[in-house]
Amino acid sequence: MKIYTKRGDSGETDLFGSGRVSKDALRVETFGTVDECNASIGVARATLTSPEEALDAILARVQNDLFALGAELASPGALDKVPLLDQTHIARLEHEIDAAEAVLAPLRNFILPGGSLSGAGLHLARTVARRAERLSVSLAAQETLRPEVVSYLNRLSDHLFVHARFANHLAQMPETAWLGRSA
Predict the structure, then answer these.
(1) How does pLDDT run across 77-103, given as a tens digit for each residue?
(2) Which of 11, 40, 138, 149 has a Cα at 20 to 30 A from 172?
(3) With 0-12 CB in 10 A as exposed, 13-18 as middle and 19+ as buried, what is 126?
């Protein structure tokens, strides 16, 4: 199978089960941003060090979830043919957040994104997840979208934030507090 089809040269792309749409359609922007989040997590995984490797299986599972979520967003006319995330996926994120937070010092102030390479990468992935969430909210206002899509992305950004902190904890990288107005 060839990777290029030339069908997109006119600025349109296919949605599975729904025909062709402009490549700048909100739905395409949304699943493209989910894909960007997935790639960002992949970069963070590639930078995990020995002490942080405990995160690899968790992040791999999230990447698989995001692939399913992207397939759902790209297949509005064929939801019966793609895997769908449900409340168990959201509950798993919550469980993983709680488990990581049990190890971390409680937050007493805002922190700056950074730390280890993987921690900084997960902070970046968090911002992409937030953008995907905002786009999914906009999409849900215009088209039918299952509420689990927005809920998953909302919980995912929290998950990535906590796991960025957890990666930094495992790498023994201190967090940098935001100085606020005194900066």
Answers:
(1) 888 999 999 999 999 999 999 999 999
(2) 40
(3) buried
Backbone angles phi, psi at 22, to 5 degrees: -65, 145
- The mean pLDDT of 47-75, rounded to a whole number, is 95
Residue 88, domain member (yes or no)? yes
CB 110 within 8 A of CB 165: no
CATH of the domain at 92: 1.20.1200.10
Q: How much is the pTM?
A: 0.93
Q: Tell me: the pLDDT tens digits for 126-139?
A: 999 999 999 999 99
Region of 82 please: left (phi>0), alpha (psi -120 to 50) or beta.
beta
Query: What single string gives the DSSP state of each residue in the chain?
Result: --S--SGGGGSEEEETTTEEEETTSHHHHHHHHHHHHHHHHHHHHHT--GGGGGGHHHHHHHHHHHHHHHHHHT-TT-GGGS----HHHHHHHHHHHHHHHTTSPPP-S-EES-SSHHHHHHHHHHHHHHHHHHHHHHHHHHS---HHHHHHHHHHHHHHHHHHHHHHHHTTPPPEEP-GGG-
Q: Which amino acid is at 46?
A: A
